[in-house]
Amino acid sequence: MLTDPRFTIEVELTVPFHDVDMMGVVWHGNYFRYFEIAREALLNQFDYGYRQMKQSGYLWPVVDSQVKYRGVLRFEQRIRVRAELKEYQNRLRIDYQIFDLASGTRTTTAYTIQVAVEEKSQELCFVSPAILFQCLGVTP
Amino acid sequence: MLTDPRFTIEVELTVPFHDVDMMGVVWHGNYFRYFEIAREALLNQFDYGYRQMKQSGYLWPVVDSQVKYRGVLRFEQRIRVRAELKEYQNRLRIDYQIFDLASGTRTTTAYTIQVAVEEKSQELCFVSPAILFQCLGVTP
Amino acid sequence: MLTDPRFTIEVELTVPFHDVDMMGVVWHGNYFRYFEIAREALLNQFDYGYRQMKQSGYLWPVVDSQVKYRGVLRFEQRIRVRAELKEYQNRLRIDYQIFDLASGTRTTTAYTIQVAVEEKSQELCFVSPAILFQCLGVTP
Amino acid sequence: MLTDPRFTIEVELTVPFHDVDMMGVVWHGNYFRYFEIAREALLNQFDYGYRQMKQSGYLWPVVDSQVKYRGVLRFEQRIRVRAELKEYQNRLRIDYQIFDLASGTRTTTAYTIQVAVEEKSQELCFVSPAILFQCLGVTP
Q1: What is the ipTM of this complex?
Q2: pTM
Q3: Test the C interface: residue of A12, A13, A18 with most C CBs within 10 Å
Q4: Model pLDDT for residues D81-90, shown as the tens digit of each residue
């Protein structure tokens, strides 16, 4: 079921000047901007982006992230960022891969894990809320 | 009255790595981080920082800004940022100066202008709200 | 001659989550990211982007900038950023306008001024270097 | 030997407005700014910060990072960031912990891993270069 094409998305980006540090490569903290653009595009495929999350009464803070920087990214490099939904039952795990657009070489792998927090009670949900399953079109 | 010492503040900062671009100098958009740190310290002297603004029912968006970059700033440079309240009757104008800490040379001058917007009505205030005058300890 | 279509460019962008502050609007310092993307696209039309600048032996630091924030920008807002080359003889002045894509409303006007600095001597050029005129296809 | 007090540092910071997102918490990618300020302070204890790295002929790109966000950070929160050198033989592993300054509660744990790349040859070093051991005052 995670083979549903809606569970994966790819976006193409160009590295802007202001993301590059004095070593001439994208500063490691700025990769999260690219992951976020891809993640938001992925979640919008299910009508469950940040706005809808908030409207549904849940916040989804990132609680864990890992990035493996296999190759550097440079100014004006054209990249393809792939985001894949990997888990949703108890938490939202999204995996990322960045590819150099010209060569197809994979430069980066990463993941983020988000958990639902009910906004009103500020309580952590140990099982993802029903609204997520509805949006994903899956049974819990 | 604008000679009241509370109408001026100075903060000392060190330029971090992630603010510097591939030309080896602080990227021009990142100066606003330094201005903001000084502005917030200035406004906190009057108990009218962002939190208090919001609690008072007003937002104060920046509507105009200018920066004159006279000299560059480099990684690990120690700087002193001075913020001065210049106008408050109808809008909040704050002027900024950045100095190299070691030499005292002034590298940057700037200003920001903010106007009050009543949060509930989203209406722009053509005269600053009473709460600002109270915090500043001035008569309108 | 400034009516040459290459002296103007427009780029379309979507406001990402990480540019928006806790007031729910794009933080005023982040507008420079949008201006920069448009400026770099404009300069690339002349083959005189950052890389070519550096290769030509000149740096072009921003020495002056002004922004008038007429309306706020919000998360996921679709915008069109127009950059226009306005001066080049002694300095590079580029004007910017941001428009809401849906309504066409202009939300922001701004400019940046850059001057040439010869990298080797670190000396400021009071007249723009010949390479700029060649790239622009104009006579000094 | 990793109990040498120079292998640990703590810095105190205040969360600035521009690091906080529209959910009212520090955006997850901005934590790397705090880690970097602490890391640079740590490396400066050994006279092997970014400048010295570059002067020594080696770049030290971050190749792996993980962050566990246990609690959120909010605007103006006072925090203490601890950085500890954990490995240096073949790579530089630094662990981070963020604590709320008022309560002492630990909100975040993280690590970064950097490897030496010889700048001239752009070749990855499988063993850390001699200059690192000299700076650390250890035998390889």
Answers
A1: 0.95
A2: 0.96
A3: A18
A4: 999 999 999 9
